[in-house]
Amino acid sequence: MKLSRKKAEQLRKAVQDALVAEFQSLFAPENDTEGYYRKALDRDVYVQADAPGQWAPNAELEIYTEQGIPGMDYGYDAYTGVKGWNGVSSRLQEAGWPYYAEFINGAVVAIYHV
Asked: Are 85 and 109 in contact (CB under 8 A)?
């Protein structure tokens, strides 16, 4: 069952917070002096109904990782990127959101209910 719009926006915020926490060095103000990565959080994390690609119609959120948000190849290897996204999933669940991140392809991550 899909979340209400209000709850989906709250989940979107929780995912943005989890991304910042998991990839701290990337989003740190001293490393993001022009706000490139922070802007990506606002621009590329979508409630699924609003996602331009519609890659994951059964997901709650779609996240595009080509313009600032860490993807599967973050750190130049899949292990680091996947490990980071597993951390995002753990942070969501620890915060009371029973959701997880799953790569749809190398540039899209979907957020699904457990």
From this structure: yes
Q: Within the chain, which residues score under 70 in pLDDT?
A: 75-77
Return the SS3 of 72.
Answer: coil
Q: Which pTM value belongs to this model?
A: 0.93
Q: What are the tokens at 14? A: 């929780």
Q: What CA–CA distance (Å, rounded) separates 61 from 109?
A: 8
SS3 60: coil
Between vectors from CA 83 to CA 85 and to CA 66, what angle results, nearest 5°? 50
Residue 55: CB atoms within 10 A of its CB come to: 17
Give whole-number Cα distances, 37 to 22, 28, 31, 69, 82, in Å: 13, 9, 9, 7, 18
What are the residues facing 105 on neighbouring strands?
108
Q: Token pair 């699904």 is at which residue? A: 112
